[in-house]
Amino acid sequence: MSKIEIYTSDSCIQCIKAKEFLKLNNIEYIEHNISKNSEARKELIGMGYMSIPVTIIDGQHVLGFDLNRMKSLLNL
């Protein structure tokens, strides 16, 4: 099973879509909400990102809700 982490915020529509996609495919993930967790925000900026969502699938970063790339990395 893939290790999946996703950086989100409360007001991000693309984040909601990415999480819905993962839930619909019964894929477990760890969410880091930068609206509620300043440490998560620092981690995201430390990785060089200033926008969300950022999904990390087995170490591979996906910026935004890139459905094709997510499907490819998840072998769907």
Automatic annotation (TrEMBL):
Q: Which Pfam family is an annotated match for this chain, by its short name?
A: Glutaredoxin
One molecular function GO term is: electron transfer activity
InterPro entries reported for this sequence: Glutaredoxin, Grx-like_ET, Thioredoxin-like_sf
Per the record, the GO terms for biological process are: cell redox homeostasis
Q: Which residues form the Glutaredoxin domain?
A: 4-62
Q: Which residues form a coiled coil?
A: none
Instruction: Write down the Gene3D superfamilies for this protein, in alphabetical order.
Output: Glutaredoxin
Name of the protein: Glutaredoxin 3
Organism source for this protein?
bioreactor metagenome
